[in-house]
Amino acid sequence: MEKVLVTGATGQIGSELTLALRQSLRFNSVIAAGYSQKDNIEATKASTHIAFDIRDRATLKKVVQKYQIDTIFHLASLLSAVAEERPQEAWDINMTGLFNVLEVARLNQCAVFFPSSIGAFGPKTPAMNTPQDTIQRPTTMYGVTKVSGELLCDYYQKHYAVDVRGLRYPGLISYKTQAGGGTTDYAVDIFYAALQSQSYCCFLKADTQLDMMYMPDAVNAAISLMQTDSKHLTHHNAFNITAMSITPKQLAAEIKRHIPEFKISYQVDPIRQAIADSWPKHLDDSCAQHEWGWHPQYTLSAMVKDMLDKLANKLSGVCHVTG
Ligand code: AKB
């Protein structure tokens, strides 16, 4: 992994992964690709940044060949709530984008990282301790693209020996770049609201239990998986991973330990609630632990403390955190 391309580099995972990769590789070895140039994203300033649509295979091929890319972290995708609003566009971006990446990787001998999601499961999947290999019948367009993506990655690995690896991410929490269009976005929005107005109106029910993870763990997971010697991997692709399994009520209680005046209320969005209700509550990530040593650093309490400290700093002057 010496010359890396990150697609979706201005997105929630991409903006932090690009910087982390840059810290562990040479400066110009990380090419950040995004649909648009966003001047405010650190990742695009810190690396060579190219704006193109992931559905444009010819440009993708030119970029891979020009910079002699050997590894593609393919993060460009629409998230669950927005994919449910625009299902045709979600299929096009998520599937055409992945197909282009796999084809260019096949023809140019690149390794590929593909992020799947808890959204690749559906209501018939066992909700607690969801096994690595189990029923996958998602009822959302996002989930349909994620499970199709997992299968397409398996196909390219089996038939063309493309070294494609991936993770099933839970909801991700970060103070740097906000999510957009996801069902788990409440777990980021709540921190901004807690610091700015000490109150938050949640769009999911109080007891909606979902897996979550702090972004430093999500970034480390992607890099560690790609750096693992392939002889240790049985699954390669679509590893279940989690760090905590929490409800909005539990997250609010933890925030309240630092901001005692914080209050949460609930106004349920039926579309996002239906999506969340179709997902598992807690994944079994023992295959990731055994095959490549997955182990998250951040518990709920460590994540909340760090989020509040770092976000307060970012929003400096606007608020005061206690505890
Ligand atoms: C979303 O909510 O769509 C994502 C996910 C869990 O994949 N954060």
Topology (elements, then pairings):
Layout: E1 4-7, H1 12-24, E2 30-34, H2 42-46, E3 48-51, H3 57-66, E4 71-74, H4 80-85, H5 87-108, E5 111-117, E6 128-130, H6 141-160, E7 164-169, E8 171-173, H7 186-197, E9 199-202, E10 210-214, H8 215-227, E11 239-240, E12 244-246, H9 248-258, E13 263-266, H10 270-277, E14 282-283, H11 286-292, H12 300-314
Parallel strand pairs: 1-2, 1-4, 2-3, 4-5, 5-7, 6-14, 7-11, 8-10, 9-13
Antiparallel strand pairs: 10-12
Bound small molecules, deduplicated? 2-amino-3-ketobutyric acid
CATH superfamily of the largest domain: NAD(P)-binding Rossmann-like Domain
* Number of structurally distinct domains: 2
Percent of sequence in beta strands: 15-25%
Low-confidence stretches: none
Task: Give the terminus-to-terminus CA distance.
Answer: 42 Å
**Could you estimate the helical fraction of the residues in percent?**
40-55%
Shape: globular
> Helix and strand succession?
EHEHEHEHHEEHEEHEEHEEHEHEHH
How would you briefly describe this protein structure?
This protein has helices at residues 12-24, 42-46, 57-66, 80-85, 87-108, 141-160, 186-197, 215-227, 248-258, 270-277, 286-292, 300-314, and strands at 4-7, 30-34, 48-51, 71-74, 111-117, 128-130, 164-169, 171-173, 199-202, 210-214, 239-240, 244-246, 263-266, 282-283.
